[in-house]
Design brief:
alpha/beta, Rossmann fold
């Protein structure tokens, strides 16, 4: 679930109240609640206890907001529980006894995973297993946020949920390990695969390009990696809808359409109104990054449309809304 390529010194490489208040004052509340209210069961009166892991992360912040209405939401981060410690994790989940656990925690530094293999496998793999065991102990539904990097990018059509994974890097391997543990241990789970995330509450590709566009005359961006940018607001709303409908299994979730990182950068500059900057396309091999990335990882989200009734909006519209509300 990479937030974007990293930035190097010489050339481009991308990086990373009450509910009434949210509804009145922020797009996030209005947009996500539209998902939630549409799909929730009107006869469901009891508040569910929902635990968000990775609550201080870019996605975690938005998940806390979207699940806040109608639920008793608790947010934990690494300071609250270290998911690599099985005993601690299972004990904490048992004491809280949530009905739903959304695991958005993870070690997401894709290049860093190549150097810190043990940490990647411990957090994304074994940590996910520990959370799954905790959910099994209390009968909680588990939502696991996964990535397009479980695929090798060799297909010429959008990836479906049932396509065979073949990760190119340690990050993808570690996230796939987490998926497999969950499938082995649980019946009531959602694996939500997503890609190219950006949002208001973390370092991301959009902010990197926006900043560089005001500092440089030209920015070099890879043109041979194609996927779909996904706004964390939209992803959070979709996850809430999947939980509200009590769906299970693997779902691809991204904004619709596709583009390269180069195309994405050009649209960021255009929407931001930045002038006097030239976006220059370069190939992946020019960056010489530690981790290999798939050249094509666009998702087929037909299952999301068919079973959940969710049509994700085009990535261009989501990007526009991000800029409208990014300082709100």
């Amino acid at each position: 679930m990479e937030a974007g390529p990293r930035v190097h010194a010489s050339l481009y490489s991308p990086t990373g109240e009450t509910i009434e208040h949210c509804v009145k004052h922020c797009f996030l509340g209005r947009f996500c609640l539209s998902f939630f209210y549409f799909f929730r069961d009107p006869d469901e009166e009891a508040m569910k206890k929902v635990l968000i892991l990775g609550a201080q992360g870019m996605l975690g912040h938005d998940l806390l907001t979207v699940f806040a209405d109608g639920n008793d939401v608790v947010g934990w981060d690494v300071g609250n529980v270290d998911i690599t410690r099985q005993g601690v994790t299972r004990k904490a989940i048992k004491e809280l006894s949530p009905a739903v656990v959304v695991n958005a925690a993870g070690y997401t530094d894709v290049d860093g995973c190549e150097k810190k293999i043990h940490k990647a496998l411990a957090v994304n793999g074994e940590g996910s297993k520990n959370v799954a065991k905790g959910c099994r102990d209390v009968g909680a539904k588990l939502v696991y946020v996964s990535t397009d990097y479980i695929f090798d990018g060799d297909r010429k059509r959008p990836y479906r949920e049932d396509d065979s994974p073949n990760p190119l890097n340690i990050y993808g391997e570690s996230k796939l390990m987490g998926e497999r543990y969950i499938e082995e241990l649980l019946d009531d789970y959602l694996i939500v695969r997503t890609q190219w995330l950006y949002g208001k509450h973390g370092r991301n590709f959009v902010e990197t390009i926006f900043t560089l566009a005001h500092e440089r005359d030209c920015i070099e961006v890879v043109h041979d990696q194609v996927g779909c940018p996904t706004y964390t607001v939209d992803l959070s709303g979709a996850i809430a809808a999947l939980v509200a409908k009590d769906l299970r299994g693997v779902f691809n979730v991204s904004n619709s359409g596709s583009c390269s990182w180069y195309d994405f950068a050009e649209e960021i500059v255009r929407v931001a109104g930045a002038t006097g900057v030239n976006i220059i396309p370069v190939s992946s091999k020019d960056l010489s990054r530690p981790a290999r990335r798939p050249h094509y990882s666009v998702f087929n989200c037909q299952r999301l449309r068919r079973e959940a009734g969710i049509e994700m909006r085009p990535w261009q519209g989501a990007l526009h809304d991000y800029f409208v509300h990014r300082k709100g």
